[in-house]
Amino acid sequence: MSASQKKLLSWPPSPPVIAVVLSLVLVIWLFGGEKQRARETPPGEQVKTEQRLAEVEVHWSQAQPAEREQVVQASITAWQLVDVKAQVAGRVEQLLKQQGDVVAAGDALLRLSDEGRTQKLAQMRADVRLREKELEGGRTLISDKLISQTELARLESELARAQAELAAAELAVAYNQPKAPFGGRVDRRYVEVGQLVQPGEVLMTVVDATKVKVAGQVPQLQIGQIQPGQKATVTLLDGREMHGEVHFVSLAAEAGTRSFYVEVHAQNPELWRVAGASATLRIHQPAVNAHRVSPALLSLGEKGELGINIVNDANVVEFHQVQVIGFEGDGTTVTGLPERVRLITQGAGFVRPGDKVETREAAE
Questions:
Q1: Could you write out the three-class secondary structure of 246-301?
Q2: CA–CA dist 183, 104 (Å, integer)
Q3: Which residues touch 294 (CB under 8 Å, ≥6 apart)?
Q4: What are phi and psi of 17, to 5 degrees?
Q5: Per-residue pLDDT for 124 more than 90?
Q6: Among candidate residues 201, 147, 205, the one with its CA nearest the CA of residue 180
Q7: Exposed, middle or buried, 123 (CB in 10 Å: 0-12/13-18/19+)?
Q8: What mean pLDDT is predicted for residues 261-290?
Q9: Where would I find the H helices in 41-179?
Q10: Of 33, 32, 206, which is closest to residue 104 (Cα–Cα)?
Q11: What confidence score (pLDDT) does residue 39 get?
């Protein structure tokens, strides 16, 4: 046995050895006691943490009949507007109508110089009479077989040519006095007496403003609600109003705006000077049941659709897509909700569709 081993087995042991032994005994005793206590003492019941439901404030809302209207920015044009142009060349000899004059359909507006057209008309009339006589003689001769069928056909052709030239000459003489194409007023005059004009040159503008056309573009999402025959109100920039109805709705949208052309016809008995002006067009539609809500209740769904959160009879949150049909003051009128519904007025931002919630009634 070595000297070191003899030292360890010597008695009494040294203080460090005693300390180590006591520490090991204490650890064994503590571990054994806790293990025995765990075996003898049954585990206590675990306390379950109860999750509290979110609380939201709700308000009952009842649908009410609401008038619908589609608001469109529009432009106004006259019922009829035509530039009267010269059909033949000549000098202006007389102005028969002035700017602002009332005209009926067919009234002469001015007179151009004849430039030999009347003489040519007389010549054409004489030529027609000659061809008629020749054809009449030819039909007599062919019965006696003195001319051929070919010669008779030539005589008929000559008469037809002469009649066509006569009709052209009559038109040329008629064009000496350009006429109003419809009843209305002379809105503009572009020529003076003595002025030389050429075919195609604008002489006067005639306008019929007893009715007007109001045209606007309706977005593709709302065009299904617009139908011909619906009543419409046209509000001018100065607040005056005109009344009419939808006359035309286009079948195809414009490629650039994806909107549809809509035309309203409105009466203008007082001949207001509105042609060419802009206006606000309100197209009235049948009433529907709708809810009036605060704009703050509107939110976007998962797909970006506009809607409102409500609480159903089982206290579960539901998201309903809505359509805004009007604004008034601090309220918004929407459709798409049930007839009677509990709107979430506070706390909607802390819940999601499908969540069960506790509710409290909002103060009136």
A1: EEEECCCCCCCCCEEEEEEEEECCCCCCCCCCEEEEEEEEEEEEEEEECHHHCEEC
A2: 4
A3: 330, 331, 332, 345
A4: -65, -40
A5: yes
A6: 205
A7: middle
A8: 91
A9: 117-143, 149-174
A10: 206
A11: 58
